[in-house]
Task: structure prediction
Amino acid sequence: MKWLPLKDDSQIDIIAPASAAPIEKLNRGLEWLHKHDFNVHLPKDLLKPRLFFAAPLENQIKHMKDALASNSQVLWCLRGGYGSARLIPYLQKLKKPKTPKMLIGFSDVTALHLYLTQEWNWPTIHGRVLTQMDTKAKKADLKMYDQLLRGKLKEITFSNLKPMNEAAKKKKTITGSVTGGNLRLLECSIGTGWELEAKGKILFLEDVGERGYAIHRMLVHLTQAGLLEGVKAIVLGDFTEGEEKDGVDRTGEALDSFAKEIGIPVLKGMPCGHGDKNAPLPFNTKATLKLGSKGELKVKTGF
Result:
């Protein structure tokens, strides 16, 4: 199943399946989309914050259903935070649209990535949420998204990945597709109807605000729950804001320790996640990973 390239005036639906965002950040994202001549559909009641959520659940469900039924080609998530998984029981009741739409988002949106890639076999994009499409960001970074939306990027390459264990240092080429996302959300998927299915795939991981011990604990949990069985390789993105109470960041040590404990090739250096770049990473498309002293991941887009 493939996406349709966007043209000037192509419709993009904005959804807020998780938490709310300041109106000024929403407006900056909208400004970027309008500047690139896209037709943006924004529900009038997109933001009616309740507790941790951008809007009441019934609003979020309606927005998602309407976006899936519309003539748009893209579902762009406002931001992460918390709440996306609450929509999945309602998605399970829907008939899959004939043409896949490009879901864009990350962090809490990991739940929707897993459902749409595993249950509907759609390609999706782990990438910037709308609030990150800020004109203050590097133009080169944002340009990738415009090229991606218009179908001009057929493949995205991630170079100079650093091997973290002996298995990753061996010169070898791995093929498959990429799945994964936020480590905390992947752990939350255990035992659900959208549980991570990574066998035979390349698993991507990132997170924010998790201390070293918590990261290691989640990775051990995934291992003991059997979710890493058959995984071909693991590639790591950004792990940020994980400082201990004494100010020391031990997330790197935790990841190094885990990489050496597991027999799966583990590489780091993906510019994806809660860091500054957050490059678009296609899920559920053909990918090729070259291991060795300088790893390289090439991922086809969904066009």
Notes: Residues 23-35 form the longest helix (13 residues).
